Fold:
Amino acid sequence: MRPVSSWGRLSALPHDVVELSDRSRIAAELAKRRPGIAYGMGRSYGDACLNPEGTLWRTAGLDRFIAFDEASGRLRCEAGATLREIQDVFLPRGWGLPVLPGTRFVTVGGAIANDVHGKNHHETGTFGDHVVSFTLQRTDGEQIASGPGERPDWFAATVGGLGLTGVIVEAELQLRRVPGPWLDTETIAYSGLDAFFQLSDESHPAWEHAVSWIDCTWGEAVRGLFLRARPAADQQRTWRGRELAMPLVPPLSLVNRLTLKPLNRLYWMLNQRQLGRRVEHYVPFLFPLDAIADWNRMYGPKGFYQYQCVVPRESGPAAVREMLTAIARSGEGSVLAVLKTFGERSPQGLLSFPMPGVTLALDFHNHPGLEALFERLDAIVAQAGGRLYPAKDARMPRALFEATYPRLGEFIKYRDPGISSAMSRRLMGS
Amino acid sequence: MRIVVIGATSGIAEQCCRLWVQREACDLLLVARDGAKAGRIAEDLRVRSPASTVEVVTLDFLDAAAIGRLAAEAALKPIDIVLIAHGMLPEQTRVQADLGLCRDTIEINAVSPALFAEAFAHHLAQAGRGTLALIGSVAGDRGRKANYSYGACKGFVERYAEGLEHRLASSGVRVVLIKPGPTDTPMAASYKARGVKLASVEEVARISVRGIDAGRPMFYAPPRWALIMLIVRNLPRFVFNRLNI
Structure:
């Protein structure tokens, strides 16, 4: 048993960690210590990857490539391979992943199980849209090969299925041709939500990636930076990433009531010099936080919550406005507040998070009194017909989950009885 | 670059291979006990570097004659690097209770690497070039109750490497001893359970590959262990024997 945390560092409870590294022995390993849950890079924020006092099947050592077809761009790999590794190996050969979330330190298995999305949802949908097939190991020994055209019901259950349908052992992914690692980017300062929606609308389809940082301490009179980017071909440049690290956990959160506004203003000011067009490497653009290893430590020993919701397009602007007002009024807030829109593509998974609309993500350092704000935000999200992202969640009430994931009933029958996580017990009762 | 990896399924060796094929097309010979596992590693390396050739050989790691033949065959073409990386790390308390396990531990961690090193040293010396790299351990620096059976073997490997280095000093062959600290590999799973902070295998591999390139006779990976072990080695007995390490 050893203490394990997820990215939010809200707990560090003991887990019986079993290292999976040999894919021929997984079936035997899973049968031994049930129930457990697969744990990749531990980048989900809440309890989706935790199973306190129980088993974690760690997949970091299950990170081998199996086959790559240079003509079609199809890559078969083990489920513990990270998106970073795939990008680093295949980008120089002209291929890349169509969907990259906000960190590249996630495994393929985790990306499927959370059906992650990037800043280009309009163009490429979610991670599951590019999965050709996978092999699922059930804890009773059965192996299920599944894809959109092969046992599609298992595919729909497993994509976004939070690791609860079995352990993904390997997967085949469709990579896409990319001209190189450089992006043509533009940073635009704006104020007011209307300006955000207008910028979002006019950015598609000319700009592949679009995302916005907002200073949420202003309420609905929000000001923000709109960042958009598209592939830039033929760049003869070199890039050397700087590696910074948060070397220790400060005794209290660096983000707190006193520092919240100054930090937001500082970020805004620092970025005034970055406004306009430039060519940028895709890594700092898509994964700005990856530049600081262990950045999650800045929230101190008690950790932090991330609140990410999506609301449908029609009710979206009003709901976002209401949420920002509620946050400003509560005196809480976030320095990492992100607003972006999702495209029309419906995701593949029964429990996939995205829906056509707008998504808001905020970090809150963990302290007493937050739950009241969360309840207020939950009410706005539910009222607007939206939902919360399980990959980020550590506290949503079960009733909210049930009400906002209408296909939960279909999903339940695909669950593996030998798999359970703190999240599944919290949201599904087992 | 032509590289022979003994114990190719070891976590550090696998990561070294990835780094090698990543920077240029290599001709790799993976020698392992578990052929299926080594086969999967070969598959991975071929995907990473289609221009590389990767061959797998399985062997009884204690069969002196077979090891001799393998080295002779491998040396038919010039070898740039031989990395001897295999090992096993059972819980010390189990080794104490089971003499059979004690023997196995010593055979795999000490006898076997010496046989491979001796066999390849002969051929590298004849060719007058190449690097012979062995993986030792910080555990070899001073016997400790936590892992002295394993540690004694690693100490033996260090002496052996030292001797080979001395013997080959005037030849073009370089002998490199890598001493990793506790590293996040499957072998160290029991360390992890005890909450020991482990270095990432990628980091240890990066340092190892760099050290092999430079032909450094001995180095720690990560380097901070040089200082830690300097202290551990020099602690007086009356202090050391009271420490629970």
Q: What stands out?
A: The interface with chain A takes residues 11, 22, 36-37, 40-41, 43-44, 47-48, 50, 184-186, 189, 192-195 of chain B (CB under 8 Å). The mean pLDDT of chain B is 95. The CA atoms of residues 9 and 37 of chain B lie 7 Å apart. The longest helix of chain B spans residues 99-127.
